[in-house]
Amino acid sequence: MSTSRYYSLLILPILFNFIFQLLPNLFSSWLESNFGQTSTKLIGIISFLLVTGTILWAVNNAIHQKRNWVLVSREQQPPRFPGLVLLMGMGTGKSDPRPFGPSQGPAIPSIEYHLAGSGKNRLHTCWLITSRDGVSAAEALRSHYESSTLRVHVCIVKDPFGLQDTYELVRNIYLKEAFENKLKPEQIISDFTGSTRPMMAGMVLACGEQWPMQYMSKKGDSPSMPIQIKFQPAD
């Protein structure tokens, strides 16, 4: 699926909302100027209902025509990967006094899962994408996990409430930094669990159907486990 198609699906609801708010005013002004005050209300209601119905039909039709692929969970754990891209949220803005605290979110079990791999499938390169406020939490993880067998990179998103920065960072990792770290893009999995929604959207758009993704799921008192996410053809 092309990037433009992804953006089309994101833009459609915004466009519809804009049109929905603009049209009543335009129709009201047009009806008043052409039919006067007396018949404006009745004709306006009828026209607005017809136009709104038409817009709803058109938007629904456009969405279903473009949605050739849908994001679904395979409800299974992914294999271990030697490369991992992790999103980390806003953090606390300061160092946590404990070795690991809530500011690290689901990053720890995600890293541990892929560190449990063996041979070429054991994690050896990890990218932590975070905001400026989350740097201290990301650096704590790097200090704890980085070793001669695991390299950890901290990448900072300028705007955690915009998807473009995250999109570009993730794409750069797969298309450039992967090779610099002796990895193929398909050897890297992205985890979009712990972050702002725009950052999650940026990662999902960047990976699309090309590269594997996961989501950390926790049920009750059981430890968090990754669920593999993929794009597949819609029914």
Counted up, domains total: 2
Q: Report the biggest beta sheet as strand number plus sense, adding barrel if it closes.
A: 7 strands, mixed
Q: Which oligomerization state do the chains in this entry correspond to?
A: single chain
The CATH architecture of the largest domain can be given as: 3-Layer(aba) Sandwich
How many alpha or pi helices? Answer: 5
Residue runs with pLDDT of under 50 for 5 or more positions: 1-20, 92-99
Based on CA atoms alone, the radius of gyration comes out at: 23 Å
Helix/strand class: alpha/beta
Strands in their spatial order, largest beta sheet: 1-7-6-5-2-3-4
CATH superfamily of the largest domain: Hypothetical protein VC1899 like domain (Restriction endonuclease-like)
Instruction: Kindly state the number of beta strands.
Output: 7
Percent in strands: 15-25%
First-residue to last-residue Cα separation: 16 Å
List keywords for this structure.
7-stranded mixed beta sheet, 235 residues, 2 domains, 7 strands, alpha/beta
Overview in brief:
With 235 residues, this protein is of the alpha/beta class. It has helices at residues 3-66, 107-115, 135-145, 163-180, 197-207; strands spanning 69-73, 83-87, 125-131, 151-157, 188-191, 213-217, 225-233.
